[in-house]
Give the backbone structure.
Amino acid sequence: MKRELDFSGREQLYYQIYDFMYQDIVGGKYAVGDFLPAESEMVNDYKVSRATVRKAMDMLADEGLIEKKRGYGTYVKSLTAKSDNQKIVGFQRAHSEGERVAYKKIQKQVVCKADQDIAQKLNLENGASVIELERVRYAGEKPMYIETNYLDYEWIPEAMERDFSKESLRVYYVNHCHIKLAKAEEKIYSVLADERQAKLLQIKENTPIFYVERVSYDESGTPREYVKAYYRADTYYLSVKLEL
């Protein structure tokens, strides 16, 4: 799937390239140790200057995601950015998806009224306006997981104008909202896929799947994001790191 830059001037070109590459790395297109396309190749592909590409790559290096190896090129150093939440528990891909391109499709992006559960998680009043953003992550044609984010509409109403099938929500928080998510509380369950979840994930109804519920907080302790995610159990496994 070819990525095209927006040359309208609304978004810096280097930031767009950074966001594309960031999503490719953390989304699983590249593994640790894989080499990225050469700067000259990216200059030709995106029709931008070398300085623009270099600035995007410098941002990725600052995040600890990539590193340059003299005489060889730039390789992936880590799949987790320094500014990401440090997670003791996480999900890992059960097997490689080869050369399949990772991308997201938006199923829903609407403003709705917060029910009691959403309002409590985001510390809002019942019925407050929230953004509901539902996306499905794919590897090639295979759906991997469903993720629904709930955000306080009063905090970032302009988020309704963004295309988060192409843009990283986490990067948007940092670069446009100037907010870093500092900690998160997460619960993980095993559930049976209902009719709609089964259809989106292309599995049979009542198939066991992982259900993840997460509330993320900024550095001041304000809850900024409530997430519900459903992972295919045949694609992911639970990874636990213990500090002894």
In short: The beta strands are 66-69, 73-76, 89-93, 102-113, 129-139, 142-152, 181-192, 208-218, 223-232, 236-240. Residues 85-89 have pLDDT under 50 and may be disordered.
